[in-house]
Amino acid sequence: MTLPIRLQKYLAQCGLASRRKAEEMITTGLISVDGKVVTEMGVSITPGVNHVKYAGKEVNAKEKLVYYLLNKPKGYVTTLSDPQGRPIVTSLIKEGGARLFPVGRLDLDTEGALIMTNDGELAQKIQHPSNETNKTYEALVRGCPGKERLSLLEKGIDLEGKMTAPALIAVLSSKGKNCLLKMTIHEGRKRQVKKMFSLIGHPVLHLKRTAYGTLTIGSLPIGSYRQLNSADLKKIFL
Ligand code: URA
Question: Do 150 and 119 sit in the same domain of this protein?
Answer without folding.
Answer: no
